[in-house]
# Entry
Amino acid sequence: MTIADLAAAPARAGIVAAGLAAPPPAFSYCSQQYRVLFGSGTTARLGEEVDRLGIRRALVLTTPQQQDDGRRLGATLGARLAGQFSGARMHTPVEVTEAALQVVEAQEVDGLVALGGGSTIGLGKALALRTGLPHIAVPTTYAGSEMTPILGETHHGVKTTRKSQDVIPDTVIYDVDLTFGLPPRVSAASGLNAIAHAVEALYAADANPLTSLMAEDGIAALARALLRIMVDPVDAAARHDALYGAWLCGACLGAVGMALHHKLCHVLGGTFDLPHAETHAIVLPHAAAYNAAAAPAAMARVARALGAADAPRGLFELARRLGLPTALGAIGMPEDGIDRAAGLAVQSPYPNPRPLERAALRDLIAAAWRGDAPVPFEEIRR
Ligand code: NAD
# Structure
C-alpha cells in the first residue's frame, strides 16, 4: 500500500465524506483541573484523599434513600468522621442547604464527602460554595454533575443556575462497585441523561476536538453498557463501561455550552416538576431531530457511536429498547402546558445549531408529549 492509498482509505470508508475525520477549522480549548480516581473498589482510597486535602472532620452527605451507604462509607474514615447529613433532595432546595450548613457549624466540619447522584452532589457543591470547604464527590449515578462547575438551586420553587470554579469537587472518586445497586430502570434513564450531555457537546457553539472525542466515546460506552445492565444489573464489565461513559459525558457537560435539549429539559422539569433523568430520555431524540439538518457532522458521530443509521431514530430506539417512557404525558406533564413550555423555551436567546422557532418547538414538545417517533425538523414545519 502506498502513502497515497493510506491517505485515501478514510475517504473510501466514507469517514471524511461524513465530516468525521476533518478537524474543525478553528477552535478554543480551555482545560479545567479535575482530580479523578476511577475503578473498582476505589472508595478504599477515600481516607487517603481526605488526608491529602487536610480534612480532619468530614461530613458525609446522602439522600435519605442512601443513608446506609453513607454510614458504611463514613465508617471507613474512623476518627476523621464528624457526622452525616442525609437530607439531600432533587434540585438542591436552599432550605436543605441551610439545614446542612447548621450541621457543618455545629459539628465543626472541615470537609465534605458527597455520596450519591446529582441531588447529593448538588448539595455538596452548594455547601462548598458557601463555606469554601474541601469537597470530595463519590457519584453513584450517571448524571455527571461531579464534572461540572454548574450549580442549580431552587428557592421557593424557582430554579436558578450559576457557574463557579468554587463548586468543582477537589476529588471525584468513581467506584464501579457502588453502581451495582442502581436499579436498571434508573440506570437507563440516568445513562440517557449522560448521553444527552455528549450529543449537545458534539454540536456546541464552543465544541473542540477533545470534547468531541470524549462525547463520541462516552455515547458508545453507555449505549453498549445500558442494554446489558437491563439484563444483568451486576454485570461488572457493563457497569464499568457505563460509569466510564458517564465520566466522559459529564466532562463534556462541564467543558462546553449546552443548547436546545438542556434548555427544554430545564423548562419542562422546573415548570411541571418532572423527573429529571426521564425528561432527558424523552426529549433527547426530538431535540436531536430538530437540530439534525443543521449539525450533520455531529449527528454522524452520534449515529456512529450508537451503531445506528440515523441519530434521532437511534436515540429513540435505544430509549424504547431500555423500556423507558417515551411520552412526557406519561410522566406527569399536562397537555395544556405544551404551549407555555414552547414560550418559555424561546424567552431568552442561547446558541443552538438551528434557530429557535416557537411554532416548531411547540410541535416538537407536542410530539414528545404524545411519545411519537422523532420527526426531522423540515417535516415538523411542513
Ligand atoms: P438523584 O441524585 O436524585 O438520585 C435518584 C435516586 O436514586 C435518589 O433517591 C438516590 O438516592 C438514588 N440512588 C442514587 N445512586 C444510587 C445507587 N447507586 N443505588 C441505589 N440508589 C441510588 O438523581 P440524578 O439523576 O443522579 O440527579 C438529578 C439531579 O442532579 C437534578 O437535580 C439535576 O438538576 C442535577 N444535575 C446537575 C448537574 C450539574 O452539572 N449541576 C448535572 C446533572 C444533574
Notes: The radius of gyration is 21 Å. The longest strand covers residues 111-116. The CA atoms of residues 91 and 125 lie 12 Å apart.
